[in-house]
Specification:
heterodimer; A: 322 residues; 14 helices; 76% helix; B: 589 residues; alpha+beta; five-stranded mixed sheet; four-stranded mixed sheet; 19 helices; disordered N terminus
Chain lengths: 322, 589
């Protein structure tokens, strides 16, 4: 098991090298750089611009900049944000909790809704539950997330039932801890729905197919013949086996939620990593962009590793060894 | 985290908690400083929360690092300076220095600091803080913007401490915008920042991370001090208990307890928040005024017209005669001949229907612009510049005089038969500008001129204008206003933003040489009428020669809740000038 984990983690290195190199080349090809807005201000002295250029290393060719950055990364120094003058790691740590919170709630929403619905739908294929959930799932899959986010903001503005964006109210600082908790929960409802709905639909469709598959298996007939109640058959025997393929997608789901939250966070004014990364891209704040790319890649690989491990844990037939 | 299974129950709970009254803060009462400044405004009542929103996020709370207006605005709330530039009257007023003397040589300024002023942590403010600030600014280890603003031809000012409450600053030559420049320098607390200065980490102190974790370390001399900062959400300032101003009854300012700024990235969302009564103040663009006004009585706010904004919009032609490293000229030679012909530029100017632009693009909320300053800059604006009213006949006459003629194809040709056609570059992010460029193209078609429009990403556009010079015509805007010294990089032929032909070694034309002379002369006298005379002539030459063909300036609007009293809205800069004097009889919004 341990060598397997180590082997998987070593694949991170060439992948990160390739991805960061690509990002670096693309950013150097993109017009303008971090100092472009500064250059367009009328009362900034050219000597200051030259000094800033030098201190950022922007006066050197891109491969030298990349080599320098790589050298620092070896010492675990991911550089600092030119905009905020704060180490990138610190900046990402500052914004990550909000995004992780949102990812977890929407993943929870997807699974808690999708699993029982999928089992119920598959229990009677073509029944009203099945047809209703299928229609709803196709509908949810067809709407792009950013559009759903816009709809949600519009709905919140029209009805006033939910706050328009953000994670906390203006008077959050003055509330009691219990009220602060409720305040955050209230703000989380809409982004969770927006981000989770697509997940509900996708999970539901995959799981329904799996459950149908497993229902044909001989051991299910055996279980029924034993006289087990339908409930026990469905949720103990069928679901357990049907979940295995889903476990292997959880890694992708986790990485996908981060990239999905980029759009949703910007539309819904949610104070997470997505907004930080988007702004960094627009401003060409190089090291923040690179740092976030590294985080996203690592998440993808680690997420896949975790789902493989979960699979091994849930399915005794899967073994990783030498 | 709670699952949103019972959103309605949650909402109900939340509504209950939201109805709680705003917190009452007990203001620590410290004695007023001996040098207290008494406000002359109406007497108000303490308390209340003022809420506004900002589209930008502060990138730092350290004045040595700040390069953008957003960060500068937040820093100005808590860090005070020796003098203030009153945005309403455009005069220099006492700040942390109660008064100052100017020696007869016009280079030596002696500032007398207010006695008894304390930092927000209770430590006395003194001349040492002023000395420390200048020492930090001039230190080559910390490259910063102020170091360049506070020197003349690369020479620093001399800063001396006379006693604990007296500081003398000497400029190497007479430097006209001295007081205005000093007014922009937030003074730093020596006792807090000296360790960072010593170990060379000064530029990293007071960053957003410190502001989030230890807001109390950002010591204040201004009306407010930082209470909390939630990145991408909000910034909360609270009244500084040691602020040095009071009202006529001896009540310490500011009246408001809290200043809350929502950080809303999207301009539409922040306008919507104001229109539905969630914020107290909002800067409004001309195209939003009409629909917002409909909500005014329901949510109790009013929309104020600030008059013309300080933003100028203009078109210019590339007059750079140089060539790139491969020997290819930046501008095709026969086109360069048109662009450098004043009659051609004036003809274009007469061909633009500016009233039409105001009506069609700005919905009537703006006015034509003829020179580099807008009327917003009351102190320096010259109304008597040459105007180019819409007059196609006059355009054609000027073009004919310059040898252009309409060919059999109904298009304009120059004296050598070349078709008159050029590409106008602008940036795609600004919708108003895109609309104006389209209207300009229509106007030019009536003169037989073909204009191709090219909308680029801002970075690409700046690259073309400042680095590659590979373009024919451009359309951009600059924020004017303030002291003429701020425009040197635009007007002077050596300037970086002298966009039609930047970074000239020697002035290319006699009129550019004359502008160089005037800009230099106005910098070296303290006498306002003389400076005004020089700068008036600069504005006149700019409109006569039309290197920039100015278009229109939009009016600026501010929406403000009616519950706030004592409001003074400046024509440029922040929405409300006197935040410390603002008060409200209605404490709940």
């Amino acid at each position: 098991m341990i060598p397997f984990i180590l082997r998987r983690l070593t694949t991170l290195v060439p992948m990160l090298l390739a991805v960061t190199l690509l990002v670096f080349i693309l950013m150097s090809l993109a017009p303008g750089d971090f100092l472009t807005p500064v250059k367009a201000q009328r009362d900034i002295n050219p000597a200051l611009i030259a000094e800033l250029q030098k201190s950022f290393g922007l006066d050197r060719p891109w491969y030298q900049q990349y080599a320098l950055w790589l050298g620092n990364v070896l010492h675990l120094d991911f550089g600092y944000s030119w905009t905020y003058k704060v180490p990138v790691a610190q900046l990402i740590a500052q914004r990550a909790p909000a995004t992780i919170l949102l990812s977890v709630t929407s993943l929870l929403l997807a699974w808690t809704l999708a699993i029982p619905l999928a089992v119920l739908a598959a229990a009677r294929p073509g029944g009203w539950i099945d047809r209703l959930t299928s229609a709803a799932a196709y509908f949810a899959l067809a709407i792009p997330e950013f559009f759903l986010a816009l709809l949600a903001v519009w709905m919140a503005a029209r009805t006033g039932w939910f706050p328009i964006g953000g994670l906390t109210s203006l008077d959050h600082d003055f509330l009691s801890p219990a009220a602060q908790f409720l305040d955050i929960a209230h703000h989380l409802i809409l982004p969770t729905l927006v981000l989770g709905l697509g997940g509900v639909a996708g999970t539901l469709r995959v799981l329904r197919a799996n459950v149908l598959d497993v229902l044909q298996a001989e051991y299910i007939t055996a279980a029924r013949a034993k006289g087990l109640s339908e409930k026990v058959v469905l949720f103990r025997h069928v679901l357990r086996n049907a979940l295995n393929p889903l476990l292997s997608t959880i890694g992708y789901a986790f990485a996908g939620l981060l990239s999905g939250s980029l759009l949703v966070e910007n539309v819904m004014n949610y104070p997470g990593l997505g907004r930080l990364v988007y702004e960094a891209f627009i401003r060409e704040d190089q090291f923040v962009v690179l740092g976030s790319v590294v985080v996203a890649c690592s998440l993808l690989i680690v997420g896949n590793l975790l789902s493989d491990l979960a699979l091994a844990w849930s399915d005794p037939r899967v073994r990783y060894g030498r | 985290m709670a699952q949103p299974i019972f959103p309605i129950a949650l909402c109900a709970l939340l509504l209950l908690s939201a109805c709680s009254p705003p917190p009452k803060i007990s203001r620590q009462t410290h004695p007023l400083p001996a040098g207290v400044d008494t406000a002359r405004s109406e007497i108000g009542r303490s308390g209340g929360v003022f809420i506004d929103s900002s589209p930008g996020e502060p990138s730092t709370f350290n004045p040595l690092v700040s390069e953008d207006a957003t960060s500068g605005g937040f820093i100005g709330l808590f860090l005070d300076s020796l003098v203030h530039n009153n945005a309403v009257t455009q005069e220099v007023e006492p700040g942390l220095a109660a008064r100052w003397d100017i020696a007869p040589d016009n280079r030596t300024f002696t500032f007398h600091l207010r006695p008894g002023v304390l930092w927000s942590d209770g430590h006395p403010f003194s001349a040492d803080d002023v000395l420390f600030t200048f020492q930090a600014i001039y230190d080559p280890r910390f490259p910063n913007r102020a170091a360049f603003d506070l020197s003349v031809d690369g020479q620093k000012f001399k800063v001396e401490k006379i006693d604990d409450l007296t500081v003398r600053l000497t400029t190497p030559q007479i430097y006209a915008p001295f007081l205005e420049t000093v007014g922009g320098v937030g003074l730093l607390p020596k006792h807090e920042l000296e360790p960072a200065f010593r170990d060379g980490t000064l530029l990293k102190s007071w960053n957003v991370s410190v502001a989030q974790k230890e807001p109390q370390r950002l010591l204040a001399t201004g009306a407010f001090r930082l209470r909390s900062y939630q990145p991408a959400e909000r910034i909360v300032f609270e009244a500084n208990p040691h602020y040095w101003r009071a009202d006529a009854q001896g009540v310490r300012l500011p009246y408001v307890d809290f200043l809350v700024t929502k950080l809303v990235k999207d301009a539409n969302a922040s306008t919507l928040a104001f229109a539905t009564g969630q914020t107290d103040a909002e800067g409004l663009s001309p195209d939003n005024v009409a629909w917002i006004d409909r909500y005014a009585s329901r949510y109790g706010f009013s929309v104020f017209n600030r008059g013309p904004s300080p933003n100028t919009g203009f078109i210019w032609f590339n007059q750079n005669p140089g060539h790139d490293t491969a020997g290819k000229p930046f501008v095709t030679p026969y086109k360069l001949a048109w662009f450098t012909d004043r009659r051609f530029r004036q003809a274009i100017s007469h061909g633009i229907d500016r009233q039409g632009l105001v009506r069609g693009v700005l919905f009537g909320r703006g006015q034509p612009l003829w020179g580099p300053e807008t009327p917003a800059n009351k102190k320096w604006y010259n109304p008597n510049v040459t105007q180019y009213p819409f007059d196609p006949a006059r355009s054609r006459a000027l073009l004919a005089e310059a040898g252009f003629q309409i060919g059999p194809d109904q298009k304009l040709h120059d004296r050598h038969g070349n078709l008159v056609e050029f590409t106008l570059n602008s940036n795609q992010e600004n919708q108003l500008r895109v609309n104006m460029a389209t209207a300009f193209k229509e106007n030019m078609r009536d003169l037989g001129i073909t204009v191709n429009l090219s909308f680029l990403d801002f970075g690409t556009l700046v690259g073309k204008i400042q680095d590659s010079y590979d373009y024919e015509a451009g359309m951009l805007g600059l924020t004017g206003g303030g002291d003429p010294a701020g425009g040197i990089s635009v007007f002077s032929s050596k300037g970086r933003l002298h966009q039609w032909y930047p970074n000239q070694k020697t002035p290319a034309t006699p009129w550019e040489a004359r502008i160089d002379q005037l800009m230099s002369d106005q910098l070296h006298t303290l006498d306002y009428p003389t400076r005004k005379k020089y700068f008036d002539e600069v504005q006149k030459i700019m409109s006569d020669e039309s290197p920039y063909i100015y278009l229109v300036t939009a009016n600026a609007y501010v929406g403000l809740k009616d519950r706030w009293k004592n409001i003074r809205i400046p024509p440029l800069g922040s929405l409300v000038w006197n935040l410390d004097e603002l008060w409200t009889p209605l404490l709940t919004p």
